[in-house]
Amino acid sequence: INTPIRASSLLGSIGSQTYQGTIKVSVRPRPLSETASSTGSWNINKQGNIIANVEAGEFQYDKVFLPDADNSEIYRDVVEPVLEKCLQGYNGTVFAYGMTGSGKTHSMQGSETENGLIQLCATELFRKLNAEFNAFKVGCSYLEIYNEKLIDLLNFDGPATDDLRIRDDPTFGIRVVGLSEHWVASEKELIEVFERGDSARKTSCTNFNDRSSRSHAVLLMRVEMKQDSSTRHSTVCLCDLAGSEKASSQSERRKEGAFINKSLLALSTVIQKLSQGSFNHIPYRDSKLTRLLQPSLSGESIVSILCTIHLSSSTLSETINTLRFAARAKNILMNVRRNEQQDTDKDRYEQLVRENERQKQEIE
Ligand code: ADP
Ligand code: MG
């Protein structure tokens, strides 16, 4: 997002390669907790792409996991294909969407006993960068959207910034002004930075569960990869979204539930419009989340959505809401440009890189 790389694309990309396809949508039911009353009798077909229930009907996706699938299985299906494309120079975005308690954070961050998609992605990213490229750079940013405020979670030393602005820069595109970026040289460093940011998130509030169900956490990895005669760029974005359930009580709705839902509601509207094939008047500006993700949703990124659901009958209506959201998202067509430049005119390239740096500092 803080990507001052458009100037270098003046060099011209190799061919005009684009990736076309629909958004990939997967559904992950979480195992029933011991207290859940009943399963609400969901069925998943043998091929693992249809989930059905007498009351809800039948829903088809790219993938429906079984409740006992582990994070590495989810990683292989949901994240790995996106990461592959990122290494070719496409941007990639993965969202976890679903009601509170359905397993978004369990999927993204894992548990004591199991790595999450973030750790698995970091490991694979550095393994592949080391194996396939002469040189590379990875910059990491981590932010939270809470009450329509954008908070930098990696601003360890700087002055407190709890409401960063988003700017649509004519040269650089959508940017978060002043968002910090940490250069990381290994998987270990990346995870360390992420965990530091995450504990900052946890300690910044009195009731973390409450806060995490109302806020969106967005991890950005900006990657620059060099081979003999070309440079590729890619931004990998991993989002753990706020709980998709409707605010339960009147007072909650009045207080901040409605506010949080402003971002999720806007996401849902944007997805709905895009899924109907319309590209004009998409209300990206209605919320911080959609504004931030505008480049991803409008075709600058390959998108994979993981929808997490409960199978218990007590949450049936929320589960149906999630499945409907997922079904709409599946219709969205992506047409994604590849970011790769031939280093034909080396001096000019380096001049542009310097220019980028200068402009970046100026903006910061
Ligand atoms: P969310 O982030 O969607 O609100 P969490 O990921 O925090 O939900 O999950 C709520 C609880 O359920 C956590 O205690 C988590 O460990 C557990 N859980 C969620 N999904 C799974 C799963 N697939 N396997 C085992 N435990 C899970
Ligand atoms: Mg969570």
Average pLDDT taken over every residue: 85
Multimer state = single chain
What share of the residues lie within helices?
A: 25-40%
Using DSSP, what is the number of strands?
17
- Name the structural class: alpha+beta
How much of the sequence lies in strands comes to 25-35%
The secondary-structure element order is EEEEEEHEHHEEEEEHHEEHHHEHEEH
Unreliable runs: 1-15
Largest sheet: 10 strands, mixed
Report Rg: 20 Å
- The end-to-end span amounts to 13 Å
Unique ligands: adenosine-5'-diphosphate, magnesium ion
List its traits:
364 residues, alpha+beta, ten-stranded mixed beta sheet, 37% helix, 27% strand, globular, binds adenosine-5'-diphosphate, binds magnesium ion, motor protein, ATP-binding, nucleotide-binding
Explain the overall architecture.
This protein has 364 residues and is an alpha+beta fold. The strands form four sheets. Strands 2, 6, 7, 8, 9, 12, 13, 14, 15 and 17 form a ten-stranded mixed beta sheet that branches. Strands 3-4-5 form a three-stranded antiparallel beta sheet, with helices on one face. Strands 1-16 form a two-stranded antiparallel sheet. The longest helix is centred in the C-terminal third of the chain and has 26 residues, at 250-275. It has helices spanning 71-87, 104-109, 117-132, 187-203, 208-214, 250-275, 288-292, 294-300, 316-329, 346-363, and strands at 18-22, 24-29, 43-44, 50-53, 57-60, 63-64, 91-98, 135-146, 149-152, 166-169, 173-176, 182-184, 216-226, 230-240, 301-309, 333-337, 340-342. The radius of gyration is 20 Å and the shape is globular. Bound molecules: adenosine-5'-diphosphate and magnesium ion. Magnesium ion is lined by residues 104-105, 212. Residues 30-31, 98, 100-106, 111, 213, 243, 308 line the site of adenosine-5'-diphosphate (ADP).
